[in-house]
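TL;DR need structure tokens for one chain.
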Amino acid sequence: MSANVGIFHDSTIHYTDVAPFHPPERYPEIGFDDRTDRENGGYRGVRECLRLLGLDAERFGTPQWNPLGELIRPGDTVLIKPNMIAGSQERSGAWHGLLTHGSVIRAVADYTVIALQGSGSIVLADGPQEDSLVDEIRGRLGIDELQAFYRDECGIEFKFIDLRDKHRVKRDGVYVGTSELPGDPSGNARCDLGSQSYLQELDHLGRRLYGSFYDVDETNRHHSGGVHEYMISRTALEADVFICVPKLKTHKKVGVTLSMKNLVGINGQKNWLPHYALGSPEENGDQFPSASAKRALENRLVLHAKKGMLRENRFFIALARRTKKLAYRVFGETDQVVRSGNWHGNDTCWRMTLDLNRILLYGRPDGTLSNQRKRYFSVVDGVVGMDGNGPLEGDEVQAGVVMAGFDPAAVDAVGATVMGIDWTRLPMIRRAFDRSERPIAGTGAEAVSVLSNREDWTGSLDELGRAEHLGFRPHFGWVGFVERGE
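>> reply
TL;DR here they are.
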């Protein structure tokens, strides 16, 4: 597997929000449609990345160019996994730095269509945050228009699946109810990594893990006693090819969110995902940076309230809605005080992320692991990225970047580096290069080669680390610990 990473940079490019996001000019290889939208810089960025990678290089510029032909075979089912975390940012309403844009999805899907040669199907799938409204996301990304386009113009099935089996209703920052969703039509597979889990290294500490919801016991039932199990979308495991299409963003729990962190969306049970361990490092936890009486009181009060809300006790729910703002005034706002594992000392979330990547790359639909690696490709949408308080409430960055490659660890190491983050200080990326029976990285970091339209971004990872970067600000819980050169 190639460790090459293509990275195109042009600070002047931007998206078009006119679905179905036609190419910016007539390209000879796009023979199924001749409409254009010259504003579509996202599409151009994807095409340039495929060219920079040298894919099917001898036929570039001809109607026969098929850059994904070595990855995708006629008759395949190809799953495209964007970042569809939420429809908009809660405070600003902005979304271009939040979601994988439809312009990029369209380009990836077009080159998938070319490789399928009229036989096969495309599935666009993700499991957004549980309180997100999928109709809002569908509208942002032009999914209905994309489905109609591929049906009418290409005769290719283009499915969309919301992988969630439940939607949680949130009011005043508190979950107040749950409604059922269809979920993955193929169901989910229970995958127990056991001793092959990155979390296994910490089992001896007897930590109390917290997931995505109030039910702490549920999270720990699936991660204790040598068991480390996840509920994974069977559609993702059954797909012949998996194309990850994430955003270029900072992340409060793992430092950055690119290809590898994007796999949180293939889960059928989000509360099985450990996000942090309760307590401070002195207490074998990573929820807070240090122990204090104030933090201990906060935990006692919050966990007691969550137990009441878990029983759907109306009194606790109403009380929580009324007092949450008061609690933030007493204990500090989350965008000012480190809590919930939102800092560089989080030793849990990156392990969960690498577990998901191991399952995706080697998992079978029955939940067991094979030794054969899934065909995988990543295209990172960084036309507009996010820094600061990512992945939800950060600031938009007009980065003008699109990246692509076959190795998730290589792509993420390059992405972090151009953001201005030292990837060697991010356990999620550094440990992805571990040599093991079922490795996540296909090669060592020393073999990663960067191919860019910028001369100073072309070469090895070490050379890239000495070049100019985009100056992304880390989440405040990471500031001073992960910046390049600090």
